[in-house]
Amino acid sequence: MGGGKSCCFYVVAAVLVVAAVVAEGDGFITWDDVSIPSAAETASGGGVGLGKAAARGGGLTTIVVSQDGTGHSRTVQGAVDLVPAGNRRRVKILVRPGIYREKVRVPITKPFVSLIGMGTARTVITWNSRASDLDASGHQVGTLNSASVAIEADYFCASHITFENSAPPAPPGAVGQQAVALRLAGDKTMLYRCRVLGTQDTLFDNMGRHYYYNCDIQGSIDFIFGNARSLFQGCTLHAVATTYGAIAASQRSSPADDSGFSFVGCKLTGSGMLYLGRAWGRYARVVYSYCDLSGIVVPQGWSDWGDQSRTKTVLFGEYSCKGPGASTRQRVPWSRTLTYEEAQPFLGKSFINGEEWLKL
Which sites are catalytic (predicted)? Predict the structure, then answer.
């Protein structure tokens, strides 16, 4: 990829400011928030029309999506639209089996939403936008708006569902071929047993604190990127690169930015030759601990994004990893083999202040 990502990604200057809300209860994310409701909870009761009225009035806490018309909505976006703005309690959107070919956006005004699928092989949300695609006004959509699913709200959860961008694979160095499957821009977000599938720029880990547990993430070039502070625990990172590629591109641009990616107990599989991380931001921060790294890791391990000055400011670290790709003998001299004391802040949920918002 040539140049920096700043030409492709931007944060909208005029951000909608919404008053902070506290969910009913203690405001923590629990296992119940990512679980499939019982049959009684998911029944549409008095019919689809009644269900929609209840949702608009803020009375429906479980919304069913079914393509056959037996739920409250035939589309995922239609279900999100039923969640009231300023929502203050957990609303579960149960997405029945099917391939949902649509773009989905959960706006900042709708926190406490759960998307619950029926299994990653059975419930799939997919679209095929690329950064160079044109919108209705003839302008390129850009990487930000190429996302098949965009989550801008806090306290979002997802489980047992696949997020996919099915655009054709992008060759290394291609311009405008970024194709995001999932963009997360809200704070205090959890994904459990989800799949995120794409090639270039698959997961836009945009901003906020995020917890990915037992998820599968697939891509080729910078397929996890952004300025979020995220913990990836027990995840499978699957490369589909045909030549070279990279897993993580941290956008951290200042030592004051409390962002970065921590991979704990993850497994790297797939094809190509992969950098563990690239220094998109001058203070990029990426750490791998207890990970199983296959032989597709480039021996040097890390890339400075073509800017040697970044080697003095990045934190690229490895701790107690295994597998043929874990050898550090040929690593770039500015990466670090961490001691336990150095790795410890990255090993648990405290990295994302999980004690404040996770009860798992």
Answer: 222
